[in-house]
Amino acid sequence: MKSLVARGDGQLSLEELDEIRILSSEVLVAPIATGVCGTDLEIIDGKIDPAFVKYPIVLGHEWCGRVIKVGSDVDSVDVGARVVAEGIIPCGICFECLGGFTNRCITYEEIGFTRAGATAQQIAVDAKFVHAIADSVSNESAVLVEPTAVVTQGLLKVQPASGAKVLVIGDGTIALIAARVVHAWHPSEVHMVGLKEGQAALAKKAGVDLFMTTSPTDKYDLIIDASGASSRISEAVRQLVRGGTLLLLGFTGPEVKTPISVDALVNGDLTIAASFGYSRKAWEMTVDFLNSGKLDLTFLVTHRFPLEKYEDAIGALRNETSPRGKIIFEIGK
Ligand SMILES: [Zn+2]
Ligand SMILES: [Zn+2]
User: Could you state, in order of their start, the residue ranges of all structural domains in the chain?
Assistant: First the structure.
């Protein structure tokens, strides 16, 4: 079977790997669509923290697919079902897992990082991490469950109040998803400060009331950073109302120091929260948003490539053109 393999040297190769033999607890899934993101570039280029990747690795942590085979012990999933699967594989027995914080499981395993991902014709996953996708949900929405679960996890942590005025920093996929998903908490307004004017139309589709590329002058109850832009994060603590919250979802880079005014934090009675990955609860909630029809992210997929055109796909990902939403590989049907 064809698989897209990264070795951390800046190159990708489409390789013919052996057919997968599943365990009795696993299901074999044929990926329908698989997204790529900035983290994939870090994996390709070897720039990711070595603790979070095992080379060589089949890329692909954002995906949906169709079940083509189930292990002998599996009765929760049927052949033919369209599914997504939690990418972070929690051990289920450590104190973090038992507390519900599966995103912080002490043994880190993740599809597309330490386990073969879904830029391939087949992927094996344990049945207990598989979630069925309703027929009404588009493949484009389903492929975005993983990044959306990251956003949901952060929002569950900060619990935005109904009527909150929200600013999203960034205009990439996570920022656009955050602008869309925060509507589930009924904000009064959602603003976005991005880098590229060309993202304005996508932002509007994400439910952004005001899109800007220069520093906002309003004050906000909640600011969500999905940019990792140090200067914007420094600024953000001065753009919060008293009692406001800054939620950090983006990475600035391991060496970057971000100056924050402690006086502004204390005087403003502010909260800074940061969130890593997603728990099982956030994943379930995200799937429920989609299956119940509350959330549709179809608009967000702007680029589609067959697996064979991987150089074009990665080129589009490296090239900061806009408008650009999610780039996906269309693999099977
Ligand atoms: Zn990603
Ligand atoms: Zn654990």
Answer: 2-144+297-330, 149-274
CATH class of 149-274: alpha beta
Query: What is the 292 CA–ligand 2 centroid distance (Å)?
Result: 29
The overall pTM is greater than 0.90: yes
Question: Separation of 43 CA from ligand 1 center, angstroms?
Answer: 11
CB 204 within 8 A of CB 191: no
Distance from the alpha carbon of residue 260 to the mean position of ligand 1, in angstroms = 27
Same fold, 2-144+297-330 and 149-274: no
Q: Please, which residues have CB within 8 angstroms of residue 50's CB and are 6 or more apart in sequence?
A: none
Vertex 232: Cα angle to 264 and 278 (nearest 5): 95
Q: What does the pLDDT look like over 200-215, one tens digit per residue?
A: 999 999 999 999 999 9
For residues 232-247, one letter each, b for 16 or more C-beta atoms within 10 angstroms of the residue's C-beta and e for the rest, the string is: bbebbbebbbeebbbb
Centre of ligand 1 from the C-alpha of residue 262, in Å: 32
Ligand lying nearest the CA atom of residue 280? 2
Residue 313 neighbours by CB distance under 10 Å? 25
CATH number belonging to domain 2-144+297-330:
3.90.180.10
**Rounded Cα–Cα distance for residues 236 and 274 (Å):** 14
Contact (CB, 8 A) for 294 and 184? yes
pLDDT, one tens digit per residue, over 106-135 is: 999 999 999 999 999 999 999 999 999 999
Give the ligand whose atoms come closest to the C-alpha of residue 92. 2
Decide: helix, strand or coil at residue 187: coil
